[in-house]
Each structure stands twice: as structure tokens, then as C-alpha cells.
Design a protein that fits this description.
Length: 139
């Protein structure tokens, strides 16, 4: 059985008791597969929409507040999952970048989103991605 909990009292939003969330929509994954590399990622985004990618969320990335992020690591250790939702081109610099959505809330980055330089495998973003097709049916 699947349970989801909110650990705040409903009236006060104060930490304390956890209450089960009883009204939620349950989705399944009908099909899925791996994708890696900038070209394959673009093709997948165009064909099926957002993809899930693992990154090495460094202290510097945690402090991101805007602009095109770039941090190329020699030793990547995937420790966080983000969604790549698109890509863009900075007209002033000619830099292509990924548009990503993070799970750290609206106050992080650019209202929960970020831009990361493409083709540099920044934080390992182009190596450990997956696509999935949502389904209402249990596999």
C-alpha cells in the first residue's frame, strides 16, 4: 500500500504530527529507458518531454541563484535527481544550455529552475538520464 505523509499540523503548519494524505493521484510508468549525450537528450525531450537526470549536486550548485551554471568536475558522484525540461541558446554569448527543474522549492535558483551549460557534462548531467511514459494502468 502507498502512503504519503505531511508532517505539519494542518491548522498551524507547525512540525509535529504526521497525517496521511488520502486524496492523491497514483501514476505508473508504462515504458522507460536510458538516454545519454546532448543529441540523444534533445531528441528525447522533443519526442516525449521532460527527462530525469542524475547530477552531482555540489555545494556550489546548492548556492545557484541564476544565470547559466557551469561546473565541470573530473570525478562525478551522482547524488541528486533533477528533471531536464528543455534547452535554450544565450544570444549574447552563443552558449547552449539545459533548462532544468529542481526539487528544492520555488525559492531556490530561478523559481525552482536552473540553466546549465550544454556539452560540458556539467555535474554529470549528460551521462545518467532516463525517459519514462506515465500510465494510469498498473504494469
Amino acid at each position: 500500500m502507498l502512503f504519503s505523509f505531511v508532517c505539519y499540523a494542518a491548522e498551524t503548519l507547525w512540525p509535529g504530527t504526521c497525517e496521511p494524505v488520502t486524496n492523491f493521484t497514483l501514476y505508473y510508468v508504462g515504458e522507460y529507458g536510458p538516454v545519454a549525450g546532448a543529441l540523444a537528450m534533445k531528441q528525447e525531450l522533443f519526442a516525449r518531454g521532460p527527462i530525469s537526470c542524475g547530477i552531482d549536486a555540489t555545494t556550489e550548485f546548492e548556492s545557484y541563484s541564476g544565470g547559466i551554471y557551469s561546473q565541470n568536475l573530473t570525478d562525478v558522484s551522482i547524488n541528486h535527481e533533477i528533471a531536464v525540461v528543455g534547452w535554450g541558446l544565450d544570444s549574447s554569448s552563443g552558449t547552449e544550455y539545459w533548462i532544468g527543474r529542481n526539487s528544492w522549492g520555488m525559492y531556490w535558483g530561478e523559481e525552482g529552475f536552473f540553466q546549465m551549460e550544454m556539452y560540458q557534462n556539467n555535474l554529470g548531467i549528460e551521462t545518467d538520464c532516463s525517459w519514462g511514459i506515465p500510465s494510469w494502468e498498473k504494469p
